[in-house]
Amino acid sequence: WRGESRGSPQQLAERYADLAASHSEALRQREEREWHNARLRQENARLRLENRRLRRENRCLFRQALLGPGPDKPPTDPGEEAEALRAQLGRLQEKHRRALRHLRRCRAAGRPEASGLEDGELDELLLEE
Known about the structure:
The protein is mainly α and 129 residues long.
């Protein structure tokens, strides 16, 4: 279309300005999404580490409960110990229920928190309940 003008120079300038503004806005939104995704990835990594730590702690506590007090600890009253373990179990079960509710909401919303689990892990947890 050499030599053909599809509008006045002013119209072309306005159109160019509109395109430049749209492009700038698209770039800004992209940068914002990338920043938000990076922040979510960091939070996800932090939560995975916390999850691993809690699993290790849980295994350790479970082993201690199975093995009983060590040689340097005086034996405790079995009734007291059983009551303390029941209370701890209740707290852990409540935490587990809250975590599963959160994961269900994340999955329903299609958010990445639920997709960070290994394949089938969430399904397995949800079936356990």
